[in-house]
Amino acid sequence: MAGTGIFTEILDGEVYKYYSDGEWRTSSSGKSVAIVNPATRKTQYKVQACTQEEVNKVMEMAKSAQKSWAKTPLWKRAELLHKAAAILKDNKAPIAESLVKEIAKPAKDSVTEVVRSGDLISYCAEEGVRILGEGKFLLSDSFPGNERTKYCLTSKIPLGVVLAIPPFNYPVNLAVSKIAPALIAGNSLVLKPPTQGAVSCLHMVHCFHLAGFPKGLISCITGKGSEIGDFLTMHPAVNCISFTGGDTGISISKKAGMIPLQMELGGKDACIVLEDADLDLVASNIIKGGFSYSGQRCTAVKVVLVMESVADELVEKVKAKVAKLTVGPPEENCDITAVVSESSANFIEGLVMDAKEKGATFCQEYKREGNLIWPLLLDNVRPDMRIAWEEPFGPVLPVLRISSVEEGINHCNASNFGLQGCVFTKDINKAMLISDAMETGTVQINSAPARGPDHFPFQGLKDSGIGSQGVTNSINLMTKVKTTVINLPTPSYSMGDGFISRL
Ligand code: G3H
């Protein structure tokens, strides 16, 4: 159970502690932040409301711990990461339980998130050993006007303190996707979990603690974004920010200093369906892509753009599958569970009502109980409806009927988002042309959008983000290139003759 067994020390009465300088602590604020269970709408957990002073302390520790961590052999950093991954996987049950309770993720998916996270950490350790263990050697005579008198050695060095801010929908996985690359590259790490998802993050951090990472290298600070959010992101000790979430990222990017930013800020992933597509395959992918975790994924299918000639058939197939989705508690592994908060449910309802007023065809009756919204397919959606452009982050999916592929591409490209998209056709040549025309970071051919496997590059264009993720790209983003140039008095060629006369 969460907060028991090896996790007892992270709890103080009924409030979870924060992690600083290698110890679990209670905030001097004496205040806590409540985490509401989306399904029951009752307070499930409480976490510390940390102060700005506590943030300062964490930053000071992170700066100093990083100095010696950067001198820790790479193989040793990797060894500790492998250890943390194993502890995390061994303790998947209590961590998954807190995911179920604080973000209403179905039980099976919660376990998958923890296991996937352990695998990500291990992969990152191995990739780090490979790519950080080698550099480049450049010779000057490849550039016009130069002789071979300069040898340039390049290597990757850490940035310093990395601030990681994961979102509520993957609090563990999207935290470790930032933590592991930061650590293997020799950085220290300050984690600010989302409020909902904080307890899962604290359990995950305890696995790193038990693995034996040095004091101060990893910290986890909880509290209200309104009190410590800007203070953290604008803190002078921070050398890199890795953020996943909504448009808060845009304001962070405006306030942050001259530091590398890695951001993923959502999407309106389009699913373009051509006349020759395998409609059974499309329907299954629309269900998986549009409704898993109740549509609360950045990479969810958020608009279907289907050729008019096959639209009726596709809508019928999707409708039949929607009817089979189970709705209810995450503990029972229902497909559709309560969305994360009341305000989120209200926002989704606003989009649905707008579509209703403007004449969309409801394939199911709209039904909501508290934060639980039944899956809904909206057909005949037009571009003047909000749902055609805005991301509901819920189990509501619009279908726009198109009369040409160009119309589909234009709709996709008119979005302010550009995360992923997908195209269904049996014609690979057409698929490639459409992929090239779509202004998104990734295009999936004949499958729903998805970030994983976690080592694939993952990036968004436009308002969907800055920088690229995926294990290798994250390690590279969290390092800087350092060069040393050896200047020789005379040109020198390996195995060249006459060197003795030049000595
Ligand atoms: O919600 C944003 C995530 O990066 C999506 O990840 O494609 O594995 O669901 P996923």
TrEMBL record:
Instruction: Please report the stretch or stretches of sequence annotated as the Aldehyde dehydrogenase domain.
Output: 24-483
User: Which reactions are catalysed by this chain?
Assistant: D-glyceraldehyde 3-phosphate + NADP(+) + H2O = (2R)-3-phosphoglycerate + NADPH + 2 H(+)
Tell me which Pfam families the record gives. Aldedh
Q: Which UniProt keywords apply?
A: Oxidoreductase
**Active site per database record:** 264
- What superkingdom does the record give? Eukaryota
Q: EC number(s)?
A: 1.2.1.9
What family is it from?
Answer: Belongs to the aldehyde dehydrogenase family.
PANTHER family recorded for this chain?
Answer: ALDEHYDE DEHYDROGENASE
- What is the protein's name according to its record? NADP-dependent glyceraldehyde-3-phosphate dehydrogenase
**Organism name:** Brassica napus
